[in-house]
Amino acid sequence: MRRDEETEVGMEREKLQEFTRRVTQASRTELIVIMYDVILEDTAAARRALGQDDAEGYERELKHAGRFVNELMGALDFQYGLSRELFRLYSYLNRTLIRARLSRGAALLDSADSMVQKLRDAFAQVSAQDESGPVMRNTEQVYAGLTYGRGSLNESYLDPSGAKRGFMA
């Protein structure tokens, strides 16, 4: 593995850990914001792959983004009129991602990113008012900090409860 590939994999791992920490503490609306963030991260990674002429990476990232769009579509509750409008937007977004995969066009990625960013910003405002608390109960409360070691920077966290964690049925 080349050094730049190792760095890229390391960044992916860090991003995954960040999303994992956010999910464990997220409310229902914050989970939607996180899903939008994942889609934006995937399209950014697809852009990087496109710039490196990595067709497989480009397609992989856009397929991953598409899976999250499909998840958002599947989670809609059609008892509410807004869900029908969101379904139309998600369908359009899904088609845009598919067209971007086929054409390898940055303009289509720009269009998709613009739509996702607007949706993300709207849900972030709703999420800021959501006082329902985390969806996952009995999860690890993360207290993180950075310490300086000899020639390194170390990240640490503490689980103050020491209790079992995960979904409560």
How many beta-strand segments? 2
N- and C-termini, Cα separation:
43 Å
Largest sheet: 2 strands, antiparallel
Query: What overall geometry do the principal axes of the alpha carbons give?
Result: flat
Describe the structure.
The N terminus is likely disordered. The chain starts with a helix and ends in an 11-residue tail after the last strand. Helices cover 67% and strands 8% of the residues. The chain is mostly helical. Strands 1-2 form a two-stranded antiparallel sheet. The chain is built from 5 helices and 2 strands, in the order αααααββ. It is flat. Helix 2 packs antiparallel against helix 3 and helix 3 packs antiparallel against helix 4.
Write the layout of secondary structure elements.
Blueprint: H1 3-25, H2 28-51, H3 55-74, H4 81-103, H5 106-129, E1 143-149, E2 152-158
Antiparallel strand pairs: 1-2
Quick recap:
This protein is mainly alpha-helical. Helices cover 67% and strands 8% of the residues.
List the keywords.
169 residues; mainly alpha; two-stranded antiparallel sheet; 5 helices; 2 strands; disordered N terminus
